[in-house]
Amino acid sequence: MSSETALDVFDRRESEVRGYIRSFPTVFDRATGSTLVDADGREYLDFFAGAGVLNYGHNNPAFTRALIEYLERDGIIHGLDMATSAKKAFIEAFERLVLAPRGLDHKLQFTGPTGANAVEAALKVARQATGRSTVVAFTNAFHGLSLGSLAATGNSHYRGAAGVGLDDVARLPYDAYLGTDVDTLDLLEKMLDDPGSGLDLPAAVIVEAVQGEGGINVASTAWLQRLREITAARGILLILDEIQAGVGRSGAFFAFEESGIVPDIVTISKSISGSGLPMSLVLLRPEVDVWKPGQHTGTFRGNNLAFVSARVALETYWADSAFTDAIAEKSELLRAGLDRIAADHPDQGFVVRGRGLIFGLACDGDRTLAGRISAEAFRRGLVIETSGAFDEVLKFLPALTISEEELARGLAIVRESLDAVLAAA
Ligand SMILES: *Cc1c(COP(=O)(O)O)cnc(C)c1O
């Protein structure tokens, strides 16, 4: 069966809103590690990892085994927010392997399973804890598409679909938005301290330490530290959105870790379950945990299968530094490979940005180039997406468990695809 025929039912019946199916037009059937296989048996190397959901690869055998055992013993699947042994074991593992080693005393709030659910809860509790409504968010931020989170998201393509006002968010420039020689926090600090600025004292500032959807922009350590100082000095809560950049993606468990700052609130989702099952949580400093019992609910706050694989992921990968050491090695290989591609095409003016295993090849000279490379790479058996306000950044998001051989093979496909696209032009 040809791919065209195989996709007929999607064209006929699935809403026009469908997105990734257009970039990767085939019917995927199974996957392991960094390899996807479609219904015709064709293999694809995965440099996308479910937009950061599959940091430990597809169907990681350690998680699959634990999930099958849990199902076979009739473990609780759905439990609202009742206590279950799966949830208890996850919280204990998170406390022991994530919070305690980093000296964090945050409480855990389990929200509905999407990232946007976590962001909504974070914004709501920040407003409630401070009694203020304004939230500062940054240029090119992506925080989700539900109304509250969408108000904090920058991209006009998404904002334009809201149909109602997106209120109570003030936009300020992210690190290096005006070039690396301008410290954009000068503007935030001046506006906060100037009663004429028009910026009301915010409840919170929400920020990604590495912007994923916004084009792989990396906030510097100094910028994050200064942001923490500015917010702390004025009683403004600092929310780190770690939904994409967290859970090892940026090289450490949290993307903010390298800067040494302690956020008041942290949102986590995407790769936290490890297996790709939906799960989200919000970390709250105890003073910020002002919720009254049941004040923010959600039927699917207790995806117990996700708790099982999430616990196994923490135990398997975060008990010592072997995993982060391996990420650091692969990070160097990826950066070196991208630097070589940029150096070999000086007339294109490519810029390489990233950290850990989240990298972007920014093709600002010709903003259509990244999309054309992605399409050509797919024809050659590589799944790789674009990001940025103009989809001008080729986005490298391989599983953190990818082998060095696979990383090199994917980079070779990108290089071949780039040269094919340039030759065709
Ligand atoms: C993906 C993402 C979200 C939204 O998560 P959904 O599950 O799509 O609602 C929020 N913030 C960041 C940084 C993300 O990458």
Description of the structure:
The protein has about 425 residues and is α/β, with parallel strands linked by helices. The model has no long low-confidence stretch (mean pLDDT about 95). The protein has 2 domains: about 10-60 and about 320-425, Aspartate Aminotransferase, domain 1; about 75-315, Type I PLP-dependent aspartate aminotransferase-like (Major domain) (Aspartate Aminotransferase, domain 2, 3-Layer(aba) Sandwich), CATH 3.40.640. A 7-stranded mixed beta sheet has the order 4-12-11-10-7-5-6. Strands 1-2-3-15 form a 4-stranded mixed beta sheet. The chain has a 4-stranded antiparallel beta sheet with strand order 13-14-17-16. The protein has helices at about 5, 10-15, 20-25, 50, 60-70, 85-100, 115-130, 145-150, 155-160, 185-195, 220-235, 305-315, 320-345, 370-380, 405-425, and strands at about 30, 35-40, 45, 105-110, 135-140, 170, 205, 210, 215-220, 235-240, 265-270, 280-285, 350-355, 360, 380-385, 385, 395. The longest helix has 23 residues, at about 320-345. It is globular. Helix 6 packs parallel to helix 12 (about 305-315), helix 13 (about 320-345) packs parallel to helix 15 (about 405-425) and helix 14 crosses helix 15 (about 405-425). Bound molecules: pyridoxal-5'-phosphate. Pyridoxal-5'-phosphate binds near residues 114, 116 and 213.
Listed once per kind, the bound small molecules are: pyridoxal-5'-phosphate
Relative strand content:
15-25%
**CATH homologous superfamily (4th level) name of the largest domain:** Type I PLP-dependent aspartate aminotransferase-like (Major domain)
Radius of gyration: 21 Å
Largest sheet: 7 strands, mixed
Portion in helices: 25-40%
The top level CATH class name of the largest domain:
Alpha Beta
* Structural class computed from helices and strand pairing: alpha/beta
Report the CATH architecture of the largest domain. Answer: 3-Layer(aba) Sandwich
Give the number of domains: 2
Distance between termini?
A: 32 Å
Name the strands of the widest sheet in spatial order.
4-12-11-10-7-5-6
Mean pLDDT: 97
Spans of at least 5 consecutive residues whose pLDDT stays below 50 are none
Any idea what the shape is? globular
Helices, by number, come to 15
CATH topology of the largest domain: Aspartate Aminotransferase, domain 2
- Give the total of beta strands: 17
Protein name: Diaminobutyrate--2-oxoglutarate transaminase
GO molecular function: diaminobutyrate-2-oxoglutarate transaminase activity; diaminobutyrate-pyruvate transaminase activity; pyridoxal phosphate binding
Organism: Agromyces ramosus
Enzyme class: transferase
